[in-house]
Amino acid sequence: MKPLAEEAVGHYLRSKVDLRHRVVSAAVAEVQQTIQRLTAEISKKDFRFQAISFSGVHHENLKVLAPSQFLVTVPLVGLTGYKERQVRHWRYYTVNGTTLLSPVRDPEELQQWLEVEQFSKSLPQWHGEDVNIEGDLVPAGVLTVFRNLVEKSIHSCSLSDKVSTVEGFGSAVRVTVETSHSQVEVELVPAIEIPTCWPHKSKWPRCFKPWPCREKVQCVKSFGFDLLATSNYHWQQSFSRAEHVLMQGLDEDGGCRRMCFQVMRQMKEDVWCTGSRPVLTAFHLQMVLFWTCEKYPRSKDWCCFRKAFLRLVRKLHKCVSQYFLKHYFLKDTNLLKYANTNALDTVAGKLAVFLENPVLPQD
User: Fold this and answer.
1) CB distance 143 to 137 below 8 Å
2) Checking DSSP bridges between strand 111-112 and strand 235-238, what pairing results, if any?
3) Tens digit of pLDDT for each residue in 76-133?
4) Contact 245, 223 (CB under 8 A)
5) CA distances from residue 168 to 159, 173, 174, 217 in whole angstroms, order as listed
6) Which DSSP symbol is given to 51?
7) Residue 206: φ, ψ to 5°
8) How far lies 231's CA from each of 47, 60, 91, 224, 326, in Å?
9) In sequence order, which residues have a C-beta less than 8 Å from that of residue 18 and are 6 or more positions away?
10) Which residues of the chain have pLDDT under 50?
11) Are the CB atoms for 325 and 319 separated by under 8 Å?
12) What gap in Å lies between CA 176 and CA 262, rounded to an integer?
């Protein structure tokens, strides 16, 4: 075991973090090719689902949650000119359109209802009974249509030897993709991209904070948000583009924020929270990083790797121990609300052990 000295950290970055980057990049490239073929076939069958074309260094539609766990958003087309609606009314229907005697529960903080009339332009296909109930675009309907398309397209574009659907995750559409070296589980999520506005629910920034600067805030908010079909009734707000922009230029002052994040992510995957479907993902670590950057905005807070890294780990330990991690853009949302508490307790125990003796593992 090695202490958190500069030499030890440098060795860890070269031997572990750089290797992870190469392995994950190779897996991403193979998964992209497969998903590109699959979504092109899906789009041929139903043009409401856009074919994904991956290009450039940043892959906007693909997020690596863990080395063997990816999330891919599939854009929906034919819905433009979004506007928010604040008027509240009750819904009395099931996802199959059956009338209920009591209303469906309200969406949680990260969720919202979505009416087709909230778009100034919408294709007639979005008014059909397969996805629309009483004027609402219902995620369950979108997911049912999408799942059927995925299953048919896997066979029709000859991907059966590489792609298999995964059952047992409720409404989620998940597939496994075989790559040259491993199997990757990919969640495919239909998404409505709304790059023109920032949601009213997000009171960010909450007040003036030194981090991020005002110019960065304006830039982040200009990228808007997405609405993901991940549940039966409610669409989930996602800020993946904003998160990516916020990660850019983290260390313009010469700090070590990104290095701290990379080492924390590597330790999470190798030691604290291992497995193919971990209770904590890179997304959770990113939220911890954002909150810590906001609380410690000064350049001098990020000059010493050891101090900065342990500060991040202590924040992570606190969140995991309390089963509570706020979303950076929606502070009333607890991202660990439905997480397995036994798994979180195990992670908290490993983090406590590390904090008592903070050393990085050897090869």
Assistant:
1) no
2) antiparallel
3) 999 999 999 877 889 999 998 999 999 999 999 999 999 999 999 999 999 999 999 9
4) yes
5) 21, 10, 9, 40
6) P
7) -65, -35
8) 22, 22, 16, 21, 20
9) none
10) none
11) yes
12) 26
User: What phi, psi does 81 have (nearest 5°)?
Assistant: 75, 50
88/109 Cα distance (integer angstroms): 14
Q: What are the tokens at 300?
A: 């001098």
CB 119 within 8 A of CB 227: no
CA dist list (Å): 145 to 278, 304, 348: 29, 52, 40
| Residues contacting residue 100 through CB under 8 Å, at least 6 positions apart | 92, 93, 94
> pLDDT (tens digit, 9 = 90+) per residue, 169-213?
677 899 999 999 999 999 999 999 999 899 999 999 988 889 999
What span, in angstroms and rounded, lies between the C-alpha atoms of 149 and 154? 9
Instruction: State the pTM of this model.
Output: 0.94
28 vs 130, 227, 317, CA distance in Å? 33, 24, 30
* Structure tokens, 214: 């005002």
Side chain identity at residue 57, one-letter code: V
240: tokens are 């993946």
What type of residue sits at position 149? L
